Amino acid sequence: MATNELFQYSIVSALMDGVASTGLPINTLLSHGDHGLGTFRYIVGEMIILDGQLYQMKSDGSVLSIEPSNSQDIVAPFAMVTHFQPTAAVKSSISSKSELFDLLTDLLPSARNHYIAMRIDGVFKAMTVRTVGGQQSPGEGLAEVGKHQVSHNFKEPTSGTIIGFRSPEYMQGISVAGDHLHFISADRKKGGHLLALESDGEVEIQTADISTVRLELPCHDAEFDKAKLKGDRERIMAVEG
Amino acid sequence: MATNELFQYSIVSALMDGVASTGLPINTLLSHGDHGLGTFRYIVGEMIILDGQLYQMKSDGSVLSIEPSNSQDIVAPFAMVTHFQPTAAVKSSISSKSELFDLLTDLLPSARNHYIAMRIDGVFKAMTVRTVGGQQSPGEGLAEVGKHQVSHNFKEPTSGTIIGFRSPEYMQGISVAGDHLHFISADRKKGGHLLALESDGEVEIQTADISTVRLELPCHDAEFDKAKLKGDRERIMAVEG
User: Fold this and answer.
1) Nearest residue of B to residue A230 by CA position?
2) Given an 8 Å threshold on Cβ–Cβ distance, is B226 in contact with A112?
3) How high is the pLDDT of residue B227?
4) DSSP SS3 for B43
5) How does pLDDT run across B123-141, given as a tens digit for each residue?
6) What is the pLDDT of residues A17-64, one digit of tens each?
7) Closest Cα partner for B104 from B83, B90, B84, B122?
8) Distance (Å) of CA A232 to CA A13, A27, A177, A236, A241
9) A GO molecular-function term, please (chains A, B) (predicted)?
10) d(CA B180, CA A135)
11) pLDDT tens profile B54-98
12) Please, which pLDDT band fits residue A155 given cuts at 50, 70 and 90?
């Protein structure tokens, strides 16, 4: 795929319906992009991919670096990746997720109905991340999994990288509408799905407009075939917002 | 693109919002598939593509064969195409669109949450097609355009081909959920968006499961950038169902 095209495997509504017993092998996923996020079989932990390296951030606070050569059995039931090539960049301090949202909107004014890929590098304080601990039984939906997630507040300023995507409102249920961001620290020892952030001074924000999306739906997956996939905006925002 | 991958330009909600002043040049569209449907600039008529040949079916009842070499200015504000390679086929009589729906569901049982491409060849009686006549002013939405569409009932049995796609429910607003079918007669002299059908004896039904979708969103298109794209299930079904 060309740079700044989005590859997405499965849809968020499938995760909401607990479709997570199988997925796309991560070797295949990495062939479609070097920058992205997702989750793992049985929704065990948060996935982040930066500079082509894939990490699993687990609810016990551990972070595993996953090597493609060892990963035949490691699959993503949901993931979004791109070959990221920033087309706009700015240095700025950020006081909140909503300030970041507005800043990116101003940076890419013609991307209002497109996707956006982003990467933010710097030092953050008052950051909150969550890591989902996995399904307690096969088929448990993401909203239920989210109820027993673990949140971490970083007490000290932490250097690291945020990777994420903005998806347009009309894609809610397919993707997560709005900004969906994962974080990993520079020492690769902590991270997760980003709930709240405040930068410690200026951080570097890089972004790119995405107007081509390749969506790959699960095949030979009985859970996906029979899932209702009704989506539910409120429930998706509660667990992924 | 590989066979049986869907290429879609823009989204149905954009047509509903009247985004139709520009679009994808049909030369580019045809590079992505030889089988499909769509519409033209200002929603003037119905598009059908079979065996790589593209036709414009207009509300005055005329059918134009569009040659790619002459088409730099001919654009599709919305279209869906694939390189169609049927994976299942059956000969059957069909008494209605809903019977066709059930027949295809039985033919591809694991495609319930996928797209389906289809082609039906044979003789049809009691067929009703509509052809939209175009926007009365730029930006007029598809629901309004549909109010001044022209319907044709074919009084005599007509030989021809139906080309279309089934889209999953969760893609309503992106695509048209359910079966979206266009028809053209064997003599290429009449056709349109299919509202009702009954076959005259057995027809040949060919179909294929689609699990990979490439969605290309309009770029450098001020109408698309500012469109609300809220979708509206009832209005889409009223005009496209």
Assistant:
1) B170
2) yes
3) 96
4) helix
5) 999 899 999 999 999 999 9
6) 999 999 999 999 999 999 999 999 999 999 999 999 999 999 999 999
7) B90
8) 8, 31, 12, 6, 13
9) acetolactate decarboxylase activity
10) 38
11) 999 999 999 999 987 766 789 999 999 999 999 999 999 999 999
12) confident
Q: Write the CATH number for B115.
A: 3.30.1330.80
SS3 at position A105: helix
Best to test chain B binding among A113, A220, A229 (most B CBs inside 10 Å):
A113
Residues 54-83 of B with CB under 8 A from A: none
Output DSSP code: residue A170.
Answer: G
Domain annotation covers residue A88? yes
Residues of chain B contacting residue A227, judged by C-beta atoms under 8 Å apart: 113
Chain B nearest C-alpha distance from A127 (Å): 33
Counted domains in chain B: 1
User: Are B214 and A212 inside 8 Å of each other by CB?
Assistant: yes
Could you tell me if the ipTM is greater than 0.90? yes
Indicate yes or no: CB of B169 within 8 angstroms of CB of A112.
Answer: no
CB contact under 8 A, A229 and B169: yes
Q: Are A187 and A193 in contact (CB under 8 A)?
A: no
Range of the domain at A210: 6-240
User: How far is the CA of B19 from the CAs of A79, A193, B46, B143, in angstroms?
Assistant: 30, 36, 16, 12
Helix ranges (H only) for chain A are 12-16, 26-31, 97-107, 142-147, 222-226, 233-240
- Could you tell me if residue B119 is inside a domain? yes
Q: Measure the CA–CA gap between B209 and B36, rounded to whole angstroms.
A: 15
